[in-house]
Write a structure and sequence with these properties.
alpha+beta, Alpha-Beta Plaits, 11 strands, 23% helix, 36% strand
Length: 195
């Protein structure tokens, strides 16, 4: 499994209603996309939940390489590039995923916590630590799901969690509003470690 995210930072006075409308009119296009575990359509607004910026920043969990490739090299991503310019696509290899007690509920917020993996950290220890973190967060009230992943090029770990109303206060990191979720193959995302 592969996680990816791109961030489109917008001007401070940008009408974020444009992003809401884009998601409302185009979000359904990925509801049956092959190979996609989920796409969380995320947005941050300057001054809301501590955000210093306006940003559109969808987060994806791909079950298959073919699905990821079909999206990146297809018309959907090209359309985004045509509208906003080609963004840097952050990419992490999934370590594991846990369904939360609110799985199946409508997430309203997401929290992304990124951190550098210190030099000398044993990879086996890192994996176990991240998997334990996912289990702990998933057990909290309001948790829909928790993904832990690592970018082995830059040795950055990410914990990404989805929350129902009021749940995001239980996780630390950058808070995003969830405008919509597409979950065509979420049932194929296994619990626990990804290998």
């Amino acid at each position: 499994m592969h996680a990816k995210q791109y961030e489109i930072t917008l001007p401070a006075d940008y009408d974020m209603g444009v992003i809401r409308e884009r998601v409302a009119t185009k979000g359904h296009l990925l509801d049956a996309f092959p190979g996609l575990g989920f796409k969380a359509y995320l947005m941050r607004e300057r001054g809301v939940d501590g955000s210093p910026v306006n940003q559109y920043a969808p987060f994806y969990l791909w079950n298959t390489d073919e699905g990821l490739g079909s999206f990146l090299w297809g018309r959907g991503f090209q359309g985004l590039c045509d509208d906003f310019g080609r963004p840097v696509v952050q990419h992490w290899m999934a370590v594991g995923y846990e369904h939360g007690g609110a799985a199946g509920g409508r997430p309203v917020s997401a929290v992304r916590h990124r951190r550098t993996v210190p030099e000398g950290t044993r990879t086996t220890d890192l994996a176990e630590e991240l998997l334990a973190e996912a289990r702990t967060l998933a057990a909290r009230d309001g948790a829909v799901g928790v993904l832990v992943a690592v970018d082995p090029r830059h040795w950055e770990a990410v914990t990404f969690s989805l929350w129902t109303e009021g749940g995001q206060a239980r996780a630390s990191g950058e808070v995003f509003q969830v405008l919509r979720c597409s979950t065509p193959e979420l049932e194929r995302v296994g619990r626990g470690r990804a290998w």
